[in-house]
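Weekly structure sync, notes
Attendees: PL (lead), two postdocs, one rotation student
Agenda item 3: pending single-chain targets
PL asked that the sequence for the first pending target be pasted directly into the notes so everyone works from the same version. It is reproduced below exactly as submitted, 399 residues in total.
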Amino acid sequence: MTVCTSHSGLVVPYPLGATWDGKGTNFALFSEHATLVELCLFDQKGRETRLELKEVTNFTWHGYVPGIGPGKRYGFRVHGPFAPEEGHCFKQMVKSLHNAGIEVILDVVYNHTGEGNHMEPTLSLRGIDNAACYRLVDGNCRYYMDFTGCGNSLNFRHPQVLKLIMDSLRYWVLECHVDGFRFDLASALARELYAVDRLAAFFDIIHQDPVIADVKLIAEPWDVGEGGYQVGEFPLLWSEWNGRYRDTVRDFWRGEDSRMAEFAYRFTGSSDLYQFNGRNPSASINFITAHDGFTLYDLVSYNEKHNEANGEEIATPGPRGERIIDDSFLLFFNAHYEMVEFQIPHRLQDWEWLTIIDTTKPRFVQRGKRYIEDKPVQVEARSLVMLQRLGKVSRDDED
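Predicted structure, written out during the meeting:
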């Protein structure tokens, strides 16, 4: 075993992965619980050489190897404790849960990778075969088809992508003994041309597989693309997150009129959704809240997302696809030749608003004028006023 040292004695724990500088390659891997990490290098005949990564910085194991460049096959061998009681052994966890009579359903995300859109870094499949692994925009292959809301969508029309997914699923069943899978944004897996297709190759290959066809298959039956909401449309062998159950129970809880008939359908297994192709009531996974969407309190309190304190009112991502978290503003623009009074939207009247820009003032800046509740905002002719949101106010506060 050879020791792999850092480049010129420098500590280089970033970026993670393999980084070539023209003379050699820096390797870095994060592992908080490892006791030893070895870099495994393979020659053209498959012969392996192991190099110990001696440098450790903030749990990142790293080292520099001169003369190693692009095209070299490598991997990492990580040594660590066998300590299932500390959460380091998935297989032992599954076995313990089974002994307690608890099944294990694995939530799998095969619809996209963490590489984001075309502006994001290359981390995985993009650097291996971008055109084969991802759905690209016809006629402009620099950009990705995004049915997932995460910047990219895997290309389930390609046989090697399907093979990668099936190998992964079989591993979890045969090696780790999980009882089934919940497929995130499952509609995106069934898009062959553009529309969601119940006869897609993804379903065919799942159904013919003697291992996967025998475990529990649960779909999140929607994605963010056109026609992606497919509750009740998945084929035999599949159960579904029943979004219509969630919505109906929400309306019933809030006392909405004329919902009792649909509530009865949802509460008794949604036969109107699943019976037509021979599925049983167990095809309906009845849920009200989950890790996605509203909390239970918000579900029965608001019609739209209400996470202002988290800076989530800006839905459009930035130029690199990143989430934008910032203050909230109101902009009032008057193109009329006379003064116009504007009203702060009703759902925003629980907040105090401060004027930060008024184009009728010197240098366009006026600070100090505040608005609460339904106090009108006067905007002079052909001018603009911008308000910045402050904190919540009580209804008896005065300006």
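Discussion points:
- The two ends are 74 Å apart (CA to CA).
- The chain has a mean pLDDT of 85.
Action: rotation student to compare against the earlier draft before next sync.
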